[in-house]
């Protein structure tokens, strides 16, 4: 326990990056005490599982490859066996998506900072609200901006964030910045912190961004689990 699900109906929004980054950082933090973390890859393309098969994957990270038929059982099993469960999904509305969000403690909706992407995130939010009604269960969700500029917050992004906030949608304070190191782990394997600075630039900045993101996820989960959340 708990389960965090990445969902967005838009392909390429940054779900797998958000899932791998969270799984890597929580595994890194829990490595010494052998705190187990689960990454459930329920996307038929299996991008997350492919990353985990490369060298350097943390030893305390357990990877489960799921489909729409097995995902609920896999989430239950992973919740029993791990301190955190992270689910990566495909970029379309599917039975696997519906099943996964039915078990989520927190749904993260990755979104790039354009109006088109924000409109797609709204579609995902509508789907979550439908699922919430269907399952008669509150589903907490939060929008995570991805691939943002490290240097400045563009005015458009600020405007989009304010639109969500005005609509009562929870938005992460932290965003995942656009960094080569996030791409590099997908090629080389392993976690950002262990990349070779001779091969990849910006490792420290990226590692600190990943940490801030994981801290905010943990904070949100704490609030949700203690019943303080209004999200
Ligand atoms: N913060 C980032 N910095 C640099 N590159 C990024 C970042 N986030 C995502 N990318 C790149 O953008 C592409 C799409 O990201 P990702 O695979 O995470 O999206 P996705 O939502 O999982 O896509 P799909 O719907 O196809 O599964 C990838 O090539 C990834 O490396
Ligand atoms: Mg993906």
Automatic annotation (TrEMBL):
Domain of life the protein comes from: Bacteria
One Pfam family per UniProt: VirC1
CDD domains, per the entry: ParAB_family
Coiled-coil region(s): none
InterPro entries: DNA_Partitioning_ATPase (IPR050678), P-loop_NTPase (IPR027417), VirC1 (IPR009744)
Protein name: ATPase involved in chromosome partitioning
Originating organism: Methylophaga aminisulfidivorans MP
């Amino acid at each position: 326990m708990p389960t965090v699900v990445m969902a967005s109906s838009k392909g390429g929004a940054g779900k797998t990056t958000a899932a791998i980054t969270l799984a890597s950082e929580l595994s890194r933090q829990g490595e010494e005490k052998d705190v187990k973390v689960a990454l459930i890859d329920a996307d038929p393309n299996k991008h997350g599982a492919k990353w985990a098969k490369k060298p350097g994957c943390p030893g305390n990270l357990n990877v489960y490859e799921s489909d729409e038929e097995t995902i609920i059982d896999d989430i239950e099993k992973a919740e029993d066996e791990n301190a955190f469960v992270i689910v990566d999904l495909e970029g379309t509305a599917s039975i696997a998506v519906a099943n996964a969000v039915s078990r989520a403690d927190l749904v993260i909706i990755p979104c790039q900072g354009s109006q088109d992407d924000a409109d797609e995130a709204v579609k995902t939010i509508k789907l979550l609200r439908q699922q919430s009604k269907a399952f008669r269960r509150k589903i907490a969700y939060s929008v995570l901006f991805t691939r943002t500029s490290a240097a400045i917050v563009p005015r458009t992004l600020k405007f989009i964030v304010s639109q969500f906030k005005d609509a009562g949608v929870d938005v992460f304070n932290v965003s995942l910045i656009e960094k080569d190191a996030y791409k590099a782990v997908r090629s080389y394997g392993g976690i950002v912190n262990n990349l070779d600075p001779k091969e990849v630039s910006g490792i420290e900045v990226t590692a600190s961004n990943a940490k801030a993101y994981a801290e905010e996820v943990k904070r949100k989960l704490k609030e949700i689990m203690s019943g303080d959340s209004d999200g």
